[in-house]
Amino acid sequence: MAEKQQPPQMGRPGFGAGAAGRLQAAVKPKNMKGTLRRLWELTGDSERGLGWILMFSGLASVSAILSPFFIGKAIDQIDTGNKAYYFLALLAGVYLCDWFSRFMQQYLMAGLGQRVVAHIRKVLFEKMKKLPLAYFDQNTHGDLMSRLTNDVDNISTTISDSLSQLLMLGFTIVGVLSIMLSLNVVLTLISLVSVVLVFLLTKAITGQTRKMFRRQQEFLGRMNGEIEEGISGLSMVKAYGREEAMYQRFERENEELRRVGTMALIWSGFLMPLMNVINNLSFLSVAAVSGIMAAKGLIPLSMVSSFVLYSRQLSRPFSDIANIYNTFQTAVAGAERIFVIFDEESEPADSEDAVPCDKFEGNLTFKNVSFGYTPERLILDGLNLEVKAGTKVAIVGETGAGKTTIINLLPRFYDVADGQVLLDGKDIRDYRRRDLRDAFGIVLQDTALFHMSVHDNICYGHPEATREMVEDAAKAAGAHEMICRLPKGYDTVLGGGGNVLSQGERQLITIARAMLADAPILILDEATSSVDTVTEQKIRRAMLAMTEGRTSFIIAHRLSTIRDSNLIILLDRGKIKEMGTHEELMAKNGQYAGLYRTQTG
Amino acid sequence: MKLMIQRVRSHLWMFLTAIFFLSVESGADLLQPMMMSWIVDRGVKQEDVQLILKYGVWMLGIAFLGAIGAVMRNIYASKTSQLIGMEIRSDLYRKIQTLSFENIDRLQPASLITRITNDVTQMQNFINGCMRIMVKAPITCVGAILMIIIQTPQLIPVMVVILAIAACLIAGNMKLGYPRFQRLQKKLDRINDVSREFLSSIRVVKAFGGEDQEQEKFDSAADDLAAAGMSATRVMAVFGPLINLTVNLGIVFLLLLSGYKGTIPIGKVMASVNYMTQVLFALGMVSNILNMAVRATASADRIQEVLEEEPAQKSAADPLVKEIVGDICFKDVSFTYAGAGRPSVMDMNLEIHAGETIGIIGATGSGKTTLINLVPRFYDVSAGELLIDGVNVNLMEEHALREAIAVVPQKALLFSGTIGYNLRWGKEDASEEEVKRAAEAACAEEFIQRQEKGYDTLLGQGGVNLSGGQKQRLSLARALLRHPKILILDDCTSALDAYTEAKVLKGLREHSKDMTVLLISQRISTVRRADHILCMENGRAVGYGSHEELMENCRLYQDIFRSQIGGEDNG
């Protein structure tokens, strides 16, 4: 039984449709250069001002290069008993310049880094928005949230902390190297030996850390999912006294996160100490060789001291770069997880010859439609149905018969696997998706309300609606009185998920939302299941007025809700079993008649 | 801060071990420039290659020792910080589980998520950084300063001035940084909040074309976060270079002074300059780590806030654990949601005997769900008393109380995991046979078997891959598996077709013979066979009795009846 309690690994490939796309992404080799290049491309034009930053970085590194030079000169002068005012004044000037350019560079970089990150976040959200519903069904919300926050954040830290440093270090290296070369070639080459060693070492270590950071981000995402689910479902956790079990589930992820996190840190921590040893070796060789050269009179003593300083100046930026490259691994790990989303297939784009259309008659035809949420299990199998404009269609049938599935296909929440759905004689895939969805006023089983005022919730998707229109819609939905009883009426801001409202009240608001949309085709999926029957009758009357002349689809289990439909479809395991008006079906004395009798007692 | 100190203290030995190795590392770091100055002063100056090599070997040995220290320090520091991070996350998660819905509404779920992940990471980074730099930097700093003083005692005044200025700068940095970092974390909450809402409302967003609106919301949250981040990092941009400048000007003065005095050996001056750069690095590190400290403190305070959150529901000091029979008694019970003006349940008086089935019916928003939520103490009564078997529920041990109750909510809440896993929430050690029986009673067995993997079918978060009716039946089976003394059914058959509902209700009746059942429904047909029916309006009981009695004397009940049965007559 223990193994049955394993939480599933959401988002892993092979769980439903869309897996093909992700599998592809997973197979794609993760290479750092590619990821960084994509990251750069992703920044769009938000890296404005980089020129200025480059310039100030250049200035700052010039100062870093010049200062030891002047210090060396000053020491030479002091050594010979001079006061060295001239060089010290120059040195002070250089330091002031260093201060100014560092400040400007960091100040500008703070802006740029945040701008880039905000841009990446927005683009990522934009992409997420376009993903098909199937994707959201397969991934825990918490994990997707983690990508928008933690993973992007990782990039942000790297960009603002490292990028500017990297630029400066690059300049420093170029500068120091050219001065060193101008001073003495042999000694420069000796210092460079360590660079090669540093390079090899870094490569070896980051090869390990990259994998670990990636796993760390994965576990962080999974843990985020675990927390999100635990909080969303807390009422059931408490009701069933499952605190301990949920805690254990959480602890598993937590423990894994700790393990991977520790390993990643330990590995990345090997870099600096080893590098320090290399740098010391290099310093020693430079000192020894320059000592010998000075002893032989090949170079002046002042050159020894400045060269020793330079060799440290040279090794430091290299170790810093190695270190930055090391921390880059976390950013790359975050970036890779972001790119997985970018690589997901979006809802297919509108076809090129999609006709803009804002007036639909409402004729709907299902032609041989097959569909399943997973390819292996078809929910609808060769469904044929013709609905004339203005028909009130009711769909009944056992739960799981495919009622909601039919409705999911109409606004293209999912696309058919086979066959066609035609609206006014044209395949719905030939319309622009926005136009198509605007053609439907939908009330879903899922009574999602947003953390904003009742008014804004009702005119969701139609921000142009006036208060009057909102109130009319609410009145038609029988929600007006209930809303007026709220502390601030229509301006009451609903809490996270609209907690204080009862399920029935939430349904009323969502119905008002659909009423306001005033679309040619209405879809009501169990819209009034939690509403009391007295209110329901009121809504029904309003609906009747509203559905007059419109095509409508109603799913309801209370058969009283659907009796006055023109066409009742009894669905059984994805197939139409009975079809006709209430009277026809009652006369037929089949399954529908049986259902009706059970309910009326 | 308090939180961090307290956590570190609980792993003091590991922390101290890290510090020990850190001292080795820092000692080596400090000795290196000295060896270098010896190499230059004694070796190079006297043109003695032998001496250079001799000191060189020493220096390498020290560097090697330092490296070992650094590696060991890193291992211990990583382990300690990650361990502390994990423990804080555990504590937070535990704490959140004890919070009542009131607390959670106040703290906001999205914010809680940020706190467990991002805020803990900030703290963890800081603690790790502490063991990496915070200790090393002062040692290096103090050591380097001491060395400068030893080598060139003439320079003490310069050092004092430099350090005083640097200290002021660092303090200013922290003072300006703290509020900014706290705002930064708040803005991160907002991002989490917006994206969480988007994810859980995705269908509505797509259906109503709310994409642009959501993008706008997200964009503004992202921009706010960027602005907060910018303002926080710009504080560092102001102070960091200033600290650099201070130390750099110190070097100039140092050279100036030694030139002025002209009596200091040149090797010592060079060493002092070298040490000065070490001071510079150390100060840079200190200000860096203090920046992290500021951020970590902001985060630690947010964590502390959760840990110190008083659960709105108090557990009894000496909770009563006893076998529950199932009598429920409401005595003048009223309940008002926090922040709501008017009570949702008012002056409720009810006496329910063990084994009875009570139907509850009433208009949308009349307080039915609120009433039953009081029984398992999802919320506590605002006034009056709720007694089970004659004992006030507030005096009972919460787990024992809930153990005896099973709730089937309106909105079936399932969790990612297999169907079997979800059902066994009701009873963890249920045999396969028991699970099957419960599923059969809830009419779920048939569709479970139709799933490819039966009970091992994986459900997505919230059971997305099931239809509404299927979710309701699973949620019902989960409750039945529990064999509770009190079964609460909150309109949990609303998504079932009439035929299945009838079957479910039949299965339920057989299964619940010895249970007290509270059954909320909109349909008279569902509640009419209950022993008593409670008819509610605006939080009050307006009728209580059998179907026949209510048909006689309850106007509201008659209205509801007419709307259902009467309505169908004229169709």
Overview in brief:
By secondary structure, chain A is an alpha/beta fold.
Identify the notable features of this structure and list them briefly:
heterodimer; A: 601 residues; alpha/beta; ABC transporter transmembrane region fold; Rossmann fold; six-stranded mixed beta sheet; 62% helix; disordered N terminus; B: 571 residues; 65% helix
Question: Could you describe the 3D structure shown?
Answer:
The complex is a heterodimer of chains A (601) and B (571). Chain A has 601 residues and is α/β, with parallel strands linked by helices. Chain A has three domains: 19-343, ABC transporter transmembrane region fold (Up-down Bundle), CATH 1.20.1560.10; 357-439 and 521-601, 3-Layer(aba) Sandwich (Rossmann fold), CATH 3.40.50.300; 451-518, no CATH class. Chain A contains 20 helices and ten strands. In chain A, helix 2 (32-42) packs across helix 11 and helix 3 (50-79) packs parallel to helix 6. Chain A is elongated and about 120 Å long. Chain A starts with 18 loop residues before the first helix and ends with a helix. The model of chain A is unreliable at 1-29 (pLDDT under 50). With 571 residues, chain B is of the alpha/beta class. Chain B has two domains: 2-308, ABC transporter type 1, transmembrane domain (ABC transporter transmembrane region fold), CATH 1.20.1560.10; 320-404 and 517-571, P-loop containing nucleotide triphosphate hydrolases (Rossmann fold). Chain B has a six-stranded mixed beta sheet. Chain B has a four-stranded antiparallel beta sheet with strand order 2-1-4-5. Chain B has a two-stranded antiparallel ribbon with strand order 7-8. In chain B, helix 17 (498-511) links the parallel strand 9 (486-490) and strand 10 (516-520). The longest helix of chain B is centred in the middle third of the chain and has 51 residues, at 211-261. Chain B starts with a helix and ends with a helix. Chains A and B meet through helix 3, helix 4, helix 5, helix 6 and helix 7 of A and helix 2, helix 3, helix 4, helix 5 and helix 7 of B.
